[in-house]
Amino acid sequence: MTMRANRVAEQMKKELSDIISRKLKDPRIGFVTVTDVEVTGDLQQATVYISVLGEDYEKEQTLLGLTKSKGFIRTEIGQRIRLRKTPELSFEIDSSVAYGNRIDTLLRGIQEPKED
């Protein structure tokens, strides 16, 4: 990514967190954390990585709710960040947090002394 794409991605990350937590009223959307935003070099598309607290069903419902709210979210982003064209949004579940927790659990299991 270019330097400008990085700046736009960071600004979008902040604004998306605010929009999702304060503006969206969809009951399907649970506790969501925006972990990362990747914007293409031409600023036409953005992939938003989210982490959701809950089970797989709740994650799917949250992803569905966010996908249905794309238009509203994109309009809000366009009003908050002055760009010639607001990037098209796509949402994905970020599994790196769960993966990191799993690795941490395994490492803690190795470090604990075994009692005989």
TrEMBL record:
GO terms for cellular component: cytosol. Keywords: Cytoplasm, Ribosome biogenesis. It is found in: Cytoplasm. Gene3D superfamilies: 3.30.300.20. PROSITE patterns: RBFA (PS01319). The keyword Cytoplasm applies. One of its GO terms (molecular function) is ribosomal small subunit binding. InterPro entries: KH_dom-like_a/b, RbfA, RbfA_dom_sf, Ribosome-bd_factorA_CS. Transmembrane segments: none annotated. GO terms for biological process: maturation of SSU-rRNA. Belongs to the RbfA family. NCBIfam families: rbfA (TIGR00082). Monomer. Binds 30S ribosomal subunits, but not 50S ribosomal subunits or 70S ribosomes. One of several proteins that assist in the late maturation steps of the functional core of the 30S ribosomal subunit. Associates with free 30S ribosomal subunits (but not with 30S subunits that are part of 70S ribosomes or polysomes). Required for efficient processing of 16S rRNA. May interact with the 5'-terminal helix region of 16S rRNA. This is Ribosome-binding factor A.
